[in-house]
Amino acid sequence: MSIMISFFQQFTGINVIMFYAPVLFKTLGFDDDASLMSAVITGIVNVFATFVSIGTVDRGGRRMLFLEGGIQMLICQILVGVILGMKFGVEGVGSMSKSSSYLVLVLICAYVAAFAWSWGPLGWLVPSEIFPLEIRSAGQAINVSVNMFFTFIIAQAFLTMLCHMKFGLFFFFTGFVLIKTLFIFFFLPETKNVPIEEMNNIWKKHWFWGKYIPDDAIIGIHHTSSKVSSN
């Protein structure tokens, strides 16, 4: 879970937007000043949308935010890819009207907002709370290492991918968004309001992970066994 959540967090494509926003928006037809301003706008959206996660993560739960954010990002990336494909085609040559450019900006802002209240903060929160105390430091070390490694990979590969894949780059990341959303749906149990000491109980009840959690790791098993033995 620590490896996959960190991997999928980077392959949402968010760093493409945040690292290279001025380059990306200039490619979409914005002039230099407008592309820089668009980058500022997406950064502001990212900050304020994070507060949505802070206010709802312990009410609606982790799974709800993960799934909603994934679906919203999926829709936004598909629409951006379709618009760019219609305007620039496979040759990457064309132009965008002002209305189309603003629509793309709105869609990217919606995408950034979805990431900022789901995969952004939860990519760090969930791995930090699902491990038993005995292996928490090792789990977090894996989480950070995987995150930084794929941040580096995406940053190095983006410009080459943009030149070769053009609008298809958005569909590339859309595929990963779909896979990661299904991954969360099937493999992540809800962990909101679960004490650290009882976290194993949640995983033991899961249809897949329960096979790998030994009975003696579950709180309550020891007490029940002791009472049966003494009786």
UniProtKB/TrEMBL annotation:
Keywords: Membrane, Sugar transport, Symport, Transmembrane, Transmembrane helix, Transport. InterPro entries: MFS_dom, MFS_sugar_transport-like, MFS_trans_sf, STP/PLT_plant, Sugar/inositol_transpt. GO terms for molecular function: carbohydrate transmembrane transporter activity; symporter activity. One of its GO terms (cellular component) is membrane. The chain crosses the membrane at residues 6-25, 37-57, 69-90, 102-120, 140-162, 169-188. Pfam families: Sugar_tr (PF00083). Gene3D superfamilies: MFS general substrate transporter like domains (1.20.1250.20). The keyword Flavoprotein does not apply. It is found in: Membrane. Residues 1-192 form the Major facilitator superfamily (MFS) profile domain. It is a multi-pass membrane protein. It comes from the Eukaryota. Belongs to the major facilitator superfamily. Sugar transporter (TC 2.A.1.1) family. This is Major facilitator superfamily (MFS) profile domain-containing protein. It comes from Papaver nudicaule (Iceland poppy). The lineage of its organism: Eukaryota, Viridiplantae, Streptophyta, Embryophyta, Tracheophyta.
